[in-house]
Amino acid sequence: MKRVLIGTGANCDYKIVDKTVSRQHAELMIKDDGTCLIIDRVSMNGTFVCDHSGQSRSGWRRITQETVSTNEIVLLGTYKLSIAQVVASLQKDVKPKPKPEKFIRDENGHIIPAN
Protein backbone atom coordinates (compact mmCIF):
# COMPACT_ATOMS: atom_id res chain seq x y z
CA MET A 1 0.00 0.00 0.00
CA LYS A 2 1.21 3.49 -0.87
CA ARG A 3 0.21 6.59 1.07
CA VAL A 4 0.37 10.01 -0.56
CA LEU A 5 -0.02 13.16 1.53
CA ILE A 6 -1.58 15.92 -0.60
CA GLY A 7 -1.55 19.63 0.17
CA THR A 8 0.40 22.86 0.08
CA GLY A 9 2.86 21.96 2.84
CA ALA A 10 6.55 21.31 2.27
CA ASN A 11 6.19 17.83 3.77
CA CYS A 12 3.54 16.73 1.25
CA ASP A 13 4.28 14.01 -1.28
CA TYR A 14 2.04 15.71 -3.86
CA LYS A 15 2.22 19.48 -3.58
CA ILE A 16 -0.48 21.84 -4.80
CA VAL A 17 -0.32 25.63 -5.00
CA ASP A 18 -3.85 26.86 -4.37
CA LYS A 19 -5.21 29.13 -1.64
CA THR A 20 -8.23 26.87 -1.02
CA VAL A 21 -6.05 23.81 -0.32
CA SER A 22 -4.79 23.18 3.23
CA ARG A 23 -1.18 22.38 4.14
CA GLN A 24 -2.10 18.73 4.75
CA HIS A 25 -5.42 18.63 2.95
CA ALA A 26 -5.93 14.95 2.11
CA GLU A 27 -4.28 11.58 1.98
CA LEU A 28 -4.59 9.13 -0.89
CA MET A 29 -4.08 5.48 -0.04
CA ILE A 30 -3.35 3.29 -3.05
CA LYS A 31 -3.83 -0.38 -2.30
CA ASP A 32 -1.83 -3.14 -3.96
CA ASP A 33 -4.88 -4.12 -6.05
CA GLY A 34 -5.05 -0.56 -7.48
CA THR A 35 -8.07 0.67 -5.54
CA CYS A 36 -7.76 4.10 -3.96
CA LEU A 37 -9.11 5.67 -0.81
CA ILE A 38 -9.10 9.45 -0.39
CA ILE A 39 -9.20 10.73 3.19
CA ASP A 40 -9.83 14.35 4.15
CA ARG A 41 -7.37 15.42 6.88
CA VAL A 42 -9.81 17.83 8.54
CA SER A 43 -9.13 20.45 5.87
CA MET A 44 -10.57 23.95 6.09
CA ASN A 45 -12.36 23.90 2.72
CA GLY A 46 -13.20 20.22 2.43
CA THR A 47 -12.69 17.32 0.06
CA PHE A 48 -15.43 16.52 -2.43
CA VAL A 49 -16.25 13.69 -4.84
CA CYS A 50 -18.61 13.74 -7.78
CA ASP A 51 -22.17 13.08 -6.63
CA HIS A 52 -23.38 10.44 -9.08
CA SER A 53 -26.76 10.24 -7.32
CA GLY A 54 -27.78 13.67 -8.59
CA GLN A 55 -29.04 14.73 -5.15
CA SER A 56 -26.52 17.57 -4.80
CA ARG A 57 -27.17 20.91 -6.51
CA SER A 58 -23.46 21.47 -7.10
CA GLY A 59 -22.80 17.94 -8.36
CA TRP A 60 -20.22 17.42 -5.57
CA ARG A 61 -20.53 15.68 -2.20
CA ARG A 62 -18.29 16.51 0.78
CA ILE A 63 -16.56 13.45 2.25
CA THR A 64 -14.34 12.46 5.14
CA GLN A 65 -13.16 9.36 3.27
CA GLU A 66 -14.26 7.65 0.09
CA THR A 67 -13.15 4.90 -2.26
CA VAL A 68 -12.36 6.46 -5.65
CA SER A 69 -11.27 5.11 -9.01
CA THR A 70 -8.10 6.29 -10.72
CA ASN A 71 -10.13 8.02 -13.46
CA GLU A 72 -12.02 10.27 -11.02
CA ILE A 73 -11.61 13.94 -10.31
CA VAL A 74 -11.95 15.16 -6.72
CA LEU A 75 -12.15 18.67 -5.36
CA LEU A 76 -9.76 19.85 -2.67
CA GLY A 77 -11.33 23.15 -1.73
CA THR A 78 -11.99 24.47 -5.25
CA TYR A 79 -8.94 22.78 -6.81
CA LYS A 80 -9.79 19.95 -9.23
CA LEU A 81 -7.42 17.04 -8.65
CA SER A 82 -7.06 14.08 -11.00
CA ILE A 83 -6.47 10.86 -9.09
CA ALA A 84 -4.75 9.49 -12.21
CA GLN A 85 -2.18 12.32 -12.11
CA VAL A 86 -1.35 11.59 -8.48
CA VAL A 87 -0.92 7.88 -9.23
CA ALA A 88 1.17 8.64 -12.34
CA SER A 89 3.45 10.93 -10.32
CA LEU A 90 4.39 7.93 -8.18
CA GLN A 91 5.25 5.78 -11.16
CA LYS A 92 7.75 8.17 -12.73
CA ASP A 93 11.20 6.68 -12.79
CA VAL A 94 13.10 9.28 -10.81
CA LYS A 95 16.77 8.44 -10.52
CA PRO A 96 18.98 10.38 -8.14
CA LYS A 97 21.83 12.34 -9.69
CA PRO A 98 25.15 10.57 -9.33
CA LYS A 99 27.56 12.30 -6.98
CA PRO A 100 30.46 14.02 -8.72
CA GLU A 101 33.77 12.36 -8.09
CA LYS A 102 35.96 15.47 -8.11
CA PHE A 103 35.62 18.92 -6.60
CA ILE A 104 37.45 22.16 -7.27
CA ARG A 105 37.44 25.65 -5.79
CA ASP A 106 35.99 28.47 -7.87
CA GLU A 107 37.41 32.00 -8.04
CA ASN A 108 35.54 32.90 -4.84
CA GLY A 109 36.94 29.94 -2.90
CA HIS A 110 33.72 27.93 -2.94
CA ILE A 111 33.95 24.17 -3.41
CA ILE A 112 32.08 23.09 -6.55
CA PRO A 113 31.82 19.88 -8.62
CA ALA A 114 34.61 19.59 -11.17
CA ASN A 115 32.35 18.35 -13.98
UniProtKB/TrEMBL annotation:
Biased composition regions of type Basic and acidic residues, renumbered to the chain: 96-109
SMART domains: FHA
Gene3D superfamilies assigned to the protein according to its UniProt record, in alphabetical order: 2.60.200.20
Region (Disordered): 96-115
InterPro entries named among the record's database cross-references: FHA_dom (IPR000253), SMAD_FHA_dom_sf (IPR008984)
Domain FHA: 4-49
Superkingdom assignment: Bacteria
Pfam family, one: FHA
Record's protein name: FHA domain-containing protein
UniProt source species: Nitrincola nitratireducens
